[in-house]
Amino acid sequence: MSNEQHEPEGSAAPEDEVWTFPAWHNKIPPLVFGVIGPVATIAVIGLVWYYFSPQYTDVGYMPEQPVPYSHKLHAGDLGIDCRYCHTGVERSAVAGVPPTQTCMNCHTQIRANSPRLLPVRSSWASGDPVEWIRIHKTPDYAYFQHDAHIRAGVGCESCHGRIDQMVEVALAQPLSMSWCLDCHRQPEKHLRPRDKVTVMGYQADNQLQQGKELKEKYGVNPPVHCSGCHR
Ligand code: HEC
Ligand code: HEC
Ligand code: HEC
Ligand code: HEC
Ligand code: HEC
Predict the structure, then answer these.
(1) Quick check: CB of 175 below 6 Å from ligand 3?
(2) Nearest one of 221, 146, 209 to 183, comparing CA atoms
(3) Least C-beta-crowded within 10 Å: which of 88, 179, 195, 199?
(4) What is the residue-averaged pLDDT of the chain?
(5) Phi and psi (nearest 5°) for 220?
(6) Which class for 22: exposed (0-12), middle (13-18), buried (19 or more C-beta within 10 A)?
(7) In the predicted model, is pLDDT for residue 35 greater than 50?
């Protein structure tokens, strides 16, 4: 999949992807346009556009970033741990994207004059953050937090794929409700020791047996009732 096929966030997606709704949506237009009126119409279109927009749910979604930053180089070849940059991941809901300072820890010395790092240097000079484009996003009505998952021994890889092999980050999993629930029903298929959560390409000798032991040890009990995720 090449970058050119993907528009930056905020621009319109191809129409055929946006308008593939389940059949009940067909009832919306006459109801809305005829009865509720123009203001509600705009609100409904906005909601539908936002929640059903393929950008956040299409596996492979890969917007063009302002800097050609490569996870393959930094996390793969150089072996920098995920938590060096995504510092929030163990103790808060959000993993966080690193501030420019983190990049400049190295790039005041390394490739200090590279044109590819120009936006990073201007951000450093101006104090304005680099405007990275968000890739993973669950809707506001679904509650997700990183720390609980990391504590339970779920690796980044289980949800984000082989980030260490991605030059540019692409959506590896659909982040859909059924995807969340598949794991919540059988977490033992995915659990690993806590000190291995950021390891890429991790393989247990016997995943099911290890998963069951860790489930017991860490007291893992993922919610499958609606209010667990819709609070
Ligand atoms: C040197 C800093 C650095 C390291 C190390 C690093 N990342 Fe990142 N990460 C970034 C930056 C900068 C972005 C935003 C730009 C982008 O998406 O490529 C990002 C974005 C991401 C995203 C997408 C965020 C979104 O918008 O949805 C994921 C997922 C991610 N990183 C996971 C990882 C994992 C897993 C590791 C460890 C294997 C890792 N990162 C290591 C700097 C880093
Ligand atoms: C621990 C040190 C370290 C950190 C932190 C780091 N980098 Fe790098 N970066 C490197 C090294 C080493 C290279 C490879 C230099 C080379 O190829 O000679 C590199 C290369 C790059 C390049 C390619 C430069 C070129 O001229 O081809 C870009 C772009 C880049 N880094 C962006 C970033 C961004 C953005 C961040 C912060 C999110 C960051 N780096 C954080 C060490 C680091
Ligand atoms: C259980 C699945 C899961 C695991 C494990 C997981 N993530 Fe995420 N990640 C998500 C979801 C879902 C989102 C979107 C969250 C949202 O919209 O609030 C996300 C978003 C992100 C983002 C962008 C938004 C933010 O929170 O800053 C980054 C960066 C990220 N993850 C990095 C990581 C890293 C690094 C690890 C491992 C240390 C990791 N994730 C482990 C599911 C996961
Ligand atoms: C690969 C496995 C996996 C995936 C995928 C996953 N989870 Fe979880 N989740 C877990 C495990 C394991 C726990 C149990 C944590 C515990 O018991 O301490 C958990 C716990 C939770 C909790 C309860 C945490 C708390 O502190 O109350 C919420 C909420 C949650 N997950 C939401 C989500 C959502 C939303 C998604 C999808 C976007 C998702 N999870 C995807 C494995 C997963
Ligand atoms: C493990 C977390 C989790 C649990 C438990 C959960 N949901 Fe969801 N739900 C989600 C996520 C994440 C989304 C957003 C999916 C997306 O964007 O495609 C969602 C979306 C929805 C939607 C919006 C329509 C759709 O399919 O996109 C409805 C309605 C819904 N959930 C109802 C429920 C009900 C009813 C239950 C209980 C039987 C429930 N959910 C349990 C995570 C969960």
Answers:
(1) yes
(2) 221
(3) 195
(4) 84
(5) -80, 130
(6) exposed
(7) yes
**Tokens 């690993």, located at residue:** 192
The pair phi, psi for residue 114, each rounded to 5°, is -65, 130
Query: Two tokens at 92?
Result: 């808060």
- What is the pLDDT averaged over residues 194-210? 96
Tokens representing 220 are: 């893992």
The residue contributing the CA closest to ligand 4 atom 29 is 229
- Tokens (6 digits) for 177: 């409700």
The CB of 198 under 6 Å from ligand 3? The reply is yes
Task: State residue 11's pLDDT score.
Answer: 42
Domain boundaries, the chain: 3-56, 146-229
Cα gap 153→214, rounded to integer Å: 8
Instruction: Round to whole Å and give the CA distance between 158 and 191.
Output: 9
Closest listed residue to residue 166, CA positions, set 57, 77, 71: 71
